[in-house]
């Protein structure tokens, strides 16, 4: 990574269905992509700018960038010094379980606005990451549930159902199925359109309207998603690159870093090493646990997020 940039993307076994990230980026640019999970990014310093819903959104220190699953967005620095943040990525099942128990939301829960100014919730996110680092399963699980509940109560609602009604939407859905099935050797846009009985430009327009990006961009995003699953299962990065359709490992490295935020080798090492590292750390004292849990239902603002160090993600 560039000078001063560092990131760690990992999982904690005691928080199933949740990815974790700490990062500081200066020149980093995230290309348009989606996540299968929710994004809850707590900005500690600087400003992040991300395209979402047709316009640029700005999240500064004390604010959260909130993105629902399968929602196309980008990411870049909004100030010369970049931005530093911590993020949790809970799965739709995790959020749905919490929403059903603690909110009155009916239907599929999600976030209404992409940016929320809430220094207290920012602090909670960083406490989740700290608890996961220290192997404190009780605190990590509790704090995660508290922050998700808080954000849903402040900025939550039922997501609209994505129904495939129009002919264009049906064609786009069929195109997506074809690309998923033939990821390693996809057809050209012209051939894909011909197979689906439409024109290339009609297919391009329908696909962008349905998924927020053109088919080739969506395919790169889907390849990285599948590569993550292969890396999680222990597949070597070079083999994963070939299996999902990238020309070689450097090709995977470039796109993986621009979407996930870390290179595939660093991503895979964290999956292998995080539990061993957690077992070597001493458990927090009972007084520390009680102090953290007593602060979770605090006021709307006024608390600043804790500072933290991040581990290198360079290969």
Describe the structure.
Strands 1, 2, 3, 4, 5, 6, 7, 8 and 10 form a 9-stranded antiparallel β-sheet that branches. 46% of the residues lie in helices and 21% in strands. It has helices at residues 92-102, 119-133, 137-155, 167-181, 189-196, 200-211, 215-232, 237-244, 249-260, 264-280, 286-294; strands at 6-11, 18-25, 29-33, 39-52, 55-60, 63-67, 73-77, 83-90, 109-111, 115-117, 156-158. With 315 residues, it is of the alpha+beta class. The chain has 11 helices and 11 strands. Helix 5 (189-196) packs across helix 6 (200-211). A hairpin with a 2-residue loop joins strand 4 and strand 5 (55-60).
Features:
nine-stranded antiparallel β-sheet; two-stranded antiparallel sheet; 11 helices; AraC_XylS_family_regulators; transcription regulation; AraC family transcriptional regulator; HTH_AraC
Low-confidence residue ranges: 281-315
> Element order, helices and strands?
EEEEEEEEHEEHHEHHHHHHHH
Main sheet makeup: 9 strands, antiparallel
Task: Give the beta-strand count.
Answer: 11
What oligomeric state do the depicted chains represent?
Answer: single chain
Mean pLDDT: 88
Structural class: alpha+beta
Question: Can you give the helix content as a percent range?
Answer: 40-55%
Structure annotation, total helices: 11
Specify the overall morphology: globular
Instruction: Give the terminus-to-terminus CA distance.
Output: 9 Å
Gyration radius (Cα, Å) is 20 Å
Estimate what percentage of residues fall within beta strands. 15-25%
InterPro entries: AraC-bd (IPR003313), AraC_XylS_family_regulators (IPR050204), Homeodomain-like_sf (IPR009057), HTH-like (IPR037923), HTH_AraC (IPR018060)
Protein name: AraC family transcriptional regulator
Region (Disordered): 281-315
Domain HTH araC/xylS-type: 173-270
